[in-house]
Amino acid sequence: MQSAISWDVFGYYLYLPAVFYQHDPGLQDVQFANDARNKYDLSATLYQVHEVEGGHRVIQYTCGYALISLPAFAAGHYIAGKTGAAQDGFSLPYQQALVYWMLMICLIGLFYLHKILLHFFDDRFSAILLALLLLATNYYEQIVHNLTTQHGLLFTLQAMLLWHLIRWHENQKSKDLILVSLLFGLACLIRPTEGILAILIFFWGNTSIKGAFIHWFNILKQRTWLIFFSCFIVALCALPQLIYWKMATGHFITNSYANHGEGLDLHRPHTWSFLFSFRKGWLIYTPIMLLAIIGMYRSLRSEKWGLAAILFFIINVYVASSWTTWWYAGSFSQRTMVQTYPLMILLVGICLKWMSSWKRLPWMGWSLVVVFSALNVFQSWQYEHKILDSSRMTRAAYFSIFLKTERPTNLDELLMIDRGTAGVPINRYPEKYNIVSVKNMKYDDQPDSVLLMKADDEFYNIHKAAYRDFTSGEHCWVDIDVEVFCDSILTDELLVVATMEHGGNYGYTTQGFAPGAFQAGQWNTLHFSYLTPPARNPNDLLAIYLWKRKKLDVLIREIDVHKQVLKNESEYN
């Protein structure tokens, strides 16, 4: 319960204490956030807040989650006042209130999903499909262990939107389209990428792209006020975020996700890995969704909304897999697909009904259901017991634990590198790497032959190259040794710096001499071992240089750079 407001949730929720307690939505002073983060152990760093142009600070995430969580915040404030707990927005009463609030929202989502399923199937079949949501997908794992994340909330919004969209196409009642617009606006306010739902709305009930345009054009002519009012509702939902950005930065539109090492790169999707990799492939860890994909084909032939489902699925997977950290941190299967399950479970139902009508092998669909459900339940159990890793799986690791109830002794060696919560690697396993020289510069041991960094020289470039020139794998080690001489004692006056560049620095790390390690008037070796961060783009530059922070003359006799690359890079991609 104490971790209910942590990591990403901490960022989504941060608006509430910033506005109501600090009266500082622009976060001119982030000390309160750092204090809360350290006091309640909410995250390793304050990555949820960024500095943007002009020296302003903004919360990385949009404010929809905070707005919907406002009742829980108010209840937590009241309970904290009555129980003597800290009224700071983060103490136990606030976390408990948020948990119960999100639990209620998730139950509403299941209620609406049941209504959707009953619209297409009988009560018994609908109950089976609800059971499959819990037994054969990562919905249960995500909700039970990460209830307060945005995915359960978005699941409910999508279920409600889908229900009212179905109702709108049945009876053309204005209230249903208005509710669809409101739910769409709220979903976008939580995550702007939920704008993909516009595809579902626009094409639902139409069997062709041309038909969809004609359909909405006719509605615009006949009920102009309704279309404009619906657009107004969507714009009204966006208004709080626009006001916040204006107050915080002076601009109505701001890129608040100013993280150079992570972002949306639509020209480099990781679709195959997103769907099929052993690291976090959605169809590897949630194979029941193979039936949903078959159901799309069937729905295209039997349902007027089949085209909408296919277009939405394709675009949604494309966008989700275009996130540079496409594995979406620690979770079981692809957590970002959970909010699409109201539609996906409906498609599973379409598939199973179709397969049940086969004259030959009518039992095949249900046999797959049993196998996929059993596999999901077992792998969820492995995940909960730390046998199946949340983000470091490889092909070798997967098959070493397949159907195993105990963790193999050599599992950690088979997994991707453990970077730790603060980016500090846990184990290196040097036997997994080949050592390759990158650059070696040796100078004669003579005063007029060594490299001299004069007092006014602040930087010296050691090496700069594209990441792809270092490795095609997920990471590599770069070891740098610099032999230096100075008449003064050096610690952090001279640093080796390594960083990746993508419109700015990420993975920025420095290394100087440890206190007492440098002997003045002698040659000393500064060693730096750099683990590359997950590369946002293989064309990003990896730069290594010396940074002299004090006006001193420093002599350099040797610079040696070598890399350690995985012997089997494809196994760890």
Give an overview in words.
The chain is of the alpha+beta class. It folds into 3 domains: 360 residues, no CATH class; 30 residues, no CATH class; 143 residues, Jelly Rolls. It contains 22 helices and 11 strands. The strands form 3 sheets. Strands 3, 4, 6, 9 and 11 form a 5-stranded antiparallel β-sheet that branches. Strands 5-10-7-8 form a 4-stranded antiparallel β-sheet. A two-stranded antiparallel ribbon has the order 1-2. β1 and β2 form a beta hairpin. α7 packs across α18, α16 packs antiparallel against α17 and α16 packs across α18. The radius of gyration is 28 Å and the shape is globular.
Question: What is this structure's SSE topology?
Answer:
Layout: H1 7-13, H2 15-20, H3 31-40, E1 49-51, E2 57-59, H4 64-68, H5 70-83, H6 92-120, H7 123-135, H8 139-145, H9 150-171, H10 174-190, H11 197-203, H12 209-222, H13 224-249, H14 271-276, H15 282-285, H16 289-302, H17 306-321, H18 341-356, H19 364-384, H20 395-401, H21 411-414, E3 433-442, E4 451-453, E5 459-466, H22 467-470, E6 476-485, E7 494-501, E8 505-511, E9 523-531, E10 541-548, E11 554-566
Antiparallel strand pairs: 1-2, 3-11, 4-11, 5-10, 6-9, 6-11, 7-8, 7-10
Helix pairs in contact: 5-6, 6-7, 6-9, 7-18, 9-10, 10-13, 11-17, 12-13, 16-17, 16-18
